[in-house]
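Pasting two entries for a bug report.
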Amino acid sequence: MSRQVKPGSKPYRAQLRDRLAALGFPEEAIPARVAENLVVECGIPPRTAWRLASELSLDVAAHHYNAATGDPRAGMRGTRIWEYEQWPERGVRPTVAALRVLAGVYGTNWKSLLGLRDLEQLPAKDLAEYHADAQPAAPLVPAQPVRTAARGETQPDEEIGASALDDAILLTQTNVDDVQLDDLWADLDFLGGAYTRTAPDAILGQLSVIDERTSALLKGRQRPKQTQDLLLVGAKCSAMMAWIAGDLGRYRLSRQLNSAAWLYTQYADDFLARRWVRTSQARVAFWSGNGVESARLAADGLNYHVGGRLTDAPLILAEARGWSSVQAEPQVLDAIARWTTIEDPDLGAGGEDRFFNITKDRRHYMAGTSLLSVGQASAALREFTTAREAYEKLPREHRWEAMDPMIRIDTGRAHLRLGDLDGAAAQVEQVLSADVGKQPDMVHAMLKVLATELNEPRWRAAATARDLAEAVLDAHVSARP
């Protein structure tokens, strides 16, 4: 070359064309010699080499591809051609049919678009078709490292960054738009609201569809902000799925989903998303039997400050509940005191995050269960009474059905701690009169706890306690799958 330019760049190709023309090569033969030079001398893979030799951008090549198929609206995009060019190291393997069309666009035969590395990765059927085709292919030259300028060498201004604009344009290409993102968020918001009045397995199934849509979109190319939005959708959807899988007693699945949700948040780098996931993780850890881990997860979630979007109350109460599992009274009372200072009796659970912003009845129920576990039965009973009143004031569409039996079961337990067997029986009998078979797993777990407490030595002589314990166990056992 007469002057130093970047191998394979547009100025390089222009100088190469001039040299070939000066040597007497006809114009129609020049692209093939340019492609050969790009492969042999510059180490550029064949499909990229032929596109560059034809002086086509990715989008223009896609336009010609669609025109060649006879359908200008066909689905080929510049990004897909780029993915074809990255294979086999990454990207997407092109089909033989796609290679034939591209070859027609570039003015060559499809076998010339495959190098030695490509052939080594071809399926047996495609390789057999390659050998069966009588058309000659370009020599299979292994790709060579692209020469870069040595230290101290200079490049002309027009050569520096010659491909930067093409690379930057890739950032503007996307497989998602604002309408799709709005639909995903709206679906999550709807299902978060429907959770309290719809069977958990039905909600889980619908969330899995959103998860699949999000995963499929993330496999394509988006603008950076759109990628972050999809990661946030994935985080929230996975955290909600983990929460609901826990309702169904599928704790292994819950932990896997929460792990996926946390991974999404790490890439999205968003504090609110981290709060969603820590709230779900703390809940699943507690109900699967790891209270201390639950408390620690909840405490970590409080480190991510997000203003008013997601209040501290659910995480503080989850921290208290976690410590209550090991009767850590100082930690429980400290957490309850912190919650009391911020509790807003008028705070509902509306807005986009109402799935995680639990309602007043559930907040007081969590406080009551924590206090009950550390021997504060009278204080717990007051919280359960407040929880019952708040539950009954909620519109039916905002009530979580499981709260009714859970409040009654733990109110009954508080009465037992205070020596009031008749008060306990009055609460529990109302639970047993209803069908608990379809209630979430935690309702059955609390029935088992209640039955154990009714069988304690202090109640063995009481016929009411024995009968009640037997009825509770029957309800618990008969409801299990």
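Entry 2 (this is the one that rendered wrong in the viewer):
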Amino acid sequence: MSGTSEGPRASAGTAPGAPAAPVTERHTTAPAENGPARTDSARTDSTRTDSVRTGPAGGDPGSAASELRDYRAAFNAATLPMGVVDGRGHVVRANEALGGLLGTPAAVLAGRQACELLDLAGDDRTWHAYREVLLGRRSRFRCTRRLKHPDGRSLWAEITVVPMTGASAAESARVLLTVADVSDRRELQERLRHLQMHDPVTRLPNRTLFFERLASALETPPYQDDSLPSRQHARIGLCYLDLDGFKAINDTLGHRTGDRLLAAVAARLTDCAENDASRNAGGNRLVARLGGDEFAILVEDSAGTQELTDLARSVLAALQQPFDLAGQRLSVSASIGVVERTAAGTSPTGLMQAADTTLYWAKADGRARWTLFDPERNAHRMTRQSLSSTLRPAVERGEFTLEYQPLVGMADGVLRGVEALVRWNHPQFGVLPPNRFVQIAEEDGSIVQLGRWVLRTACRQARRWQLDHPDEPPLFISVNVAVRQVWDSDLVADVAQILAETELAPGLLQLELTESAVMGSGGRPLRALQALSDMGVRIAIDDFGTGYSNLAYLSRLPVSVLKLDGAFVKGFRYEDGTHPSPADETIVEAMVQLAHRLGLTVTAECVETAGQAERLRRIGCDTGQGWLYSRAVAPEQIAGLIGSRPLEG
């Protein structure tokens, strides 16, 4: 028997199951005229009061006896099951309705423990509240219990216990116990709850019930046997899936067809979960529709990652089979995020965040696949998110610095210019190179603000070197520009203003754009590049040879410099035993010759050995950049290289 009640347990009172003492009472009626008093042996009456028993002062004894008989008759005839219980918890009197409810004659119930008959000791809170009423410390107690009738059927009963008034000081306090059959009401409540907790289209548990079950699975130990593994080692798994392209089906075939498809998908998911349960003994499986075309399969007490990945594979295989819906044959696929971990220390929110992230990975990786949660990948994502949220304020706080890598003439090894490379002195992650945050800045638009700061700082530094070394040829400064800076800001006006502020000659500024950005230029970007070139600023294509490599663009773009991607230069290595690539050398030689015929200069990136430098020099590269000459260094070190001997490794 089970149910709900109120209050914590107390130790006071007679424990359930204690032997019942005989309950009798000597009742003396008012003496008849000229006759002796009559003594009856009778059980106490639950509704009798002192005024009824002894009669009101100066009242008619016959009237009191008649009133007592009326109370007893009403008690016995009442359709509401009732009983009188003494202070020790024994039934003193029960009416026929209570006997009928419990399937036992009312007379047989006398002397029985009420808590045993009605399962009032089934849990601590109910037992304590019941005993408090028996001891006179509480005015009322009500609970709902599930009772089993002797004929085998179950019923829900609402039990109310209230103290009876009017008992004499010589008698033990009694309480009136009433029992109402609320099975119909309970069934209605359960039906309403089922409707509230289930999706009307698929009949699956909805989002509310799913999270209720998830919270319960993470809070309630699945093991009750001490010989089995402890809660500390319990595990939980989740397959979170989303149908690929479901919106297109809704838009083209209508929501009615879409709903039929969702119901069919739900049936296949349920089959997959049941098959998994038959293969792997353990906890429950719950299939739920979380909304739209999103479903989840919760595996309580999972056997490990392998079980979850096998389940994900079976789901994909099941959904890949065509669906026949009212004469229409449809095919769908799904992306699934799989999470499996220990239940200890896991929260519903944390598990769902991990599942949602993994589902996003599955879609980003190509859809129609499952992806397992990867803590390292997630840590990278979290770091990336942290960088994104703090990037804009970091520019304002001055957390960025510039380092400069020399650009050296291949023919004489003399320093010709430098490339400005931005670094982020992050307070948490340390010094971050550009590849850790530039893409983020491009995505959220902060590259415009950051790029403007880099351009101004680099030009100011180039002008300072020029003023500090008036007898040496001035160095040109090369600054990377993202294509979004061309689209989202007035780059031409920014450059003109910064050159005017710093008094740096336009010919000493070189702007680098990647090949993929430049080769697709048209309209506004192309006009901006042309205006910058007309101003005297040099335009360089960075990483040339790895993007579109559409040579036709070179004839109409205002490009001054091609920077060969380091992947080609690596094919020139001899010193470390690496076999050189004749194809790379041929490609580089052809690109250099083409560039020179178009009036462009060529810079080779990633020059690391003297052998590479020598071959690039023979091919005709104009400038080189790489660790052979120097890594990116602080501006003070660049100042020491100006006018010094050739930078040869």
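Dev reply: Rendering is fixed now. As a check, the viewer should reflect this: Residues 1-57, 222-229 have pLDDT under 50 and may be disordered.
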